[in-house]
Design brief:
The protein is 55% helix and 13% strand. By secondary structure, it is of the alpha/beta class. Strands 2-3-1-4-5 form a five-stranded parallel beta sheet, with helices on both faces. Helix 1 (14-23) crosses helix 9 (178-196), helix 4 crosses helix 5 (77-100) and helix 6 (133-144) packs across helix 7. The longest helix is centred in the middle third of the chain and has 24 residues, at 77-100. The protein starts with a strand and ends with a helix. The mean pLDDT is 93.
């Protein structure tokens, strides 16, 4: 099974790229989607989180209050480690399950922290969606309605652009239009279909 890992910094255009791969018939396994799935109401992880942090962590809608949880783990490294010990194995299991169920010629694993978590080890190739820093900051500030300063802090917390590019087998340079990026995806798709044969 050919697994292609797709990653990139915040606001780089990972979603646009992965949506295009999906429209070409490629199974997309998205780590962010999986991380939300494992804490849905009725899931064992949510029950564990509730019994650990208390019922305040669950909103009136029965969903995990992510904002509250972020506040707790941002200021407490021990609590963050505990949470990771509960979530990471389940996220890993779900990702493996979804990849094993894939029926497309190759599977795309989308993960913002692909390289930081060494998840690229399960991938045959790594494609990085790359964007100039200025574009990244402007796009993210507009999309998330946050200040440029806040986005700069987020960017600084992620792997440096140069390091990410060093680890890439393929690069989608996203400094033009959405159509430009989608055309690059189509070219890579052709290449990956050949590799998958």
């Amino acid at each position: 099974m050919l697994i292609i890992g797709l990653t990139g910094g915040i606001g780089s255009g990972k979603s646009v790229a992965s949506d295009k791969f999906a429209s070409l018939g490629v199974t997309v396994v998205d780590a962010d989607v999986v991380s939300r799935t494992v804490v849905e109401p009725g899931m064992p992880a949510l029950k564990e989180i509730e019994s650990h942090f208390g019922s305040d962590i669950i909103g009136d809608d029965g969903l995990l209050d992510r904002t509250k949880l972020r506040e707790i783990i941002a200021s407490d490294a021990e609590e963050r480690k505990w949470l990771e010990s509960v979530l990471h194995p389940r996220i890993g299991e779900q990702i493996t399950k979804e990849i094993s169920e894939s029926t497309s010629p190759y599977t795309l694993l989308v993960a913002p922290l692909l390289l930081e978590t060494n998840s690229q080890e399960m991938c045959s190739r790594v494609v990085v969606v790359d964007v100039p820093k200025e574009v990244q900051i402007t796009r993210t500030a507009e999309r998330d309605k946050v200040s440029h300063n806040q986005v700069e802090q987020m960017v600084a917390a992620q792997m440096q652009r140069e390091k990410r590019l060093e680890k890439a087998d393929d690069v989608l340079l996203n400094k033009g239009t959405i159509e430009d990026l989608e055309n690059q995806v189509e070219e890579l798709h052709k290449k990956y279909l050949l590799l998958a044969e």
